[in-house]
Each structure stands twice: as C-alpha cells, then as structure tokens.
Specification:
About 65% of the residues lie in helices and about 0% in strands. The chain is flat, with a radius of gyration of 19 Å. The protein is mostly helical. The chain starts with a helix and ends with a helix.
Length: about 220
C-alpha cells in the first residue's frame, strides 16, 4: 500500500472528506484529486499536517508495515496555521539532510546508494528548491540515525535522558525508553506496530467486556 493509498484508506475509515483535507492543507482540490488518481505521494512538507488531520504519527503513516487503524496516540498536534519560520522548517528538509551528511562525515553518494537513487537527486536537495519524496523519508532517517520528527521540522522531542528525569515514570518505563533508543530505526518501527496492535486488542477486549456487563 502506497502512502497516498494509506491516507485515503484512513480518511475513509474516519469519514474525512477530500475537501476537508484540501482546506486544512490550503491546497487546491485538484491537487488532492491528482495525488489520488495518479497514486502520487504528497510532498514531504505536508506530511506532518496530514498526520495531524488523520490523528496518526508520521512513522505510522509512512511505515510499510501492515496497516491497522490506531487509537489516538500521537505527538502533540502541530498548528494548521503555520508561521513563516515554521513554513521555512518544512521547506528546507533537503538542506537539513545535507547539513547532517556533513556533520556525520557521510557522502551524498553513500546516501544515494542506500536509497537506490541517483547522486544528482540527493545533490539537488541541497539548493532547497526540492525536497526528498515522502517515500524516502524513513530510509533517510535510518541512514542518518535521526527521528522522523527531526528530519521534518529540525526540532527534536525530549530525549530519554530528559524524559527519565520525570518523576511520573517508573523504573520499568525509564528502562523501556532506554532500550528502545538502542534499537535501529527499523526495529523501533516494528516495536511500535506491535504495541499498536496490542493496544487495539486491549481496547477491543475492554469494549467486549463492557458490552457484556450492560447486557
């Protein structure tokens, strides 16, 4: 299932209309229609806003794992009214990739080989005129060992160390976060999908028990 197919699948499940998506993204209806008809993924700069509308995480939307409609568990919503600085953050994803490549001493060719694309394509992102396509965002994160949120916004959520200082977390919860951070991005995504499945099963079991108690 492609990203745009997943988007429309979730929209159908949640009764969200294409016109609703169009208004929230501030694009024309024909753009939404063309993405759907041509099976073309939306530009990377719209991913966070789409996730906000669909109430799913970016990792979930872009993941190639089996699609299961998840409960409302996600990062804090982004504003649909973006400031100029925020818009600039979304529009410079390609530049951010090159900054990270330089910081990590990695070559454009290595990233291009990892993504299975031409080096000229990766080089083109440096000018800021084009961003990576949505389908390569997760592989880029894996190559650079960064979070998807950081790639898209240049901002990072709390680290495990910061979260671990929260007195509300138990020792087990802190250990769980620490172990999670040690996993590769692909394994982290697998764990998240498994957890989402478990949550869905527990919600279904809870609903069944409530139904029986009311009968």
């Amino acid at each position: 299932m492609s990203i745009i197919e997943r988007i429309f699948y979730i929209m159908e499940e949640k009764k969200i209309r294409a016109s609703d998506l169009q208004k929230e993204l501030n694009v024309t209806y024909s753009q939404i229609s063309n993405w759907h008809k041509r099976n073309t993924d939306p530009p990377a700069k719209y991913i966070l806003q789409i996730c906000n509308i669909l109430e799913v995480s970016p990792e979930y939307l872009l993941s190639s794992e089996e699609l299961i409609i998840k409960p409302k568990i996600q990062p804090e919503k982004i504003s649909t009214s973006l400031s100029k600085d925020e818009i600039d953050l979304y529009q410079c994803i390609g530049k951010r990739v090159h900054v990270l490549l330089n910081e990590q001493g990695k070559r454009q060719k290595d990233l291009a080989d990892f993504l299975g694309t031409a080096t000229s394509t990766v080089h083109g992102w440096k000018q800021g005129n084009r961003n990576p396509s949505s389908e390569v965002l997760l592989p880029i994160c894996e190559f650079l060992d960064i979070s998807l949120e950081y790639l898209l916004t240049g901002k990072e959520r709390n680290t495990v160390k910061q979260i671990g200082n929260n007195n509300d977390l138990s020792i087990d919860e802190t250990d769980l976060l620490s172990y999670f951070r040690e996993l590769s991005r692909s394994n982290q995504r697998s764990i998240l999908v498994q957890m989402e499945n478990m949550i869905k099963q527990e919600n279904e079991q809870s609903a069944t028990k409530q139904g029986k108690s009311l009968a």
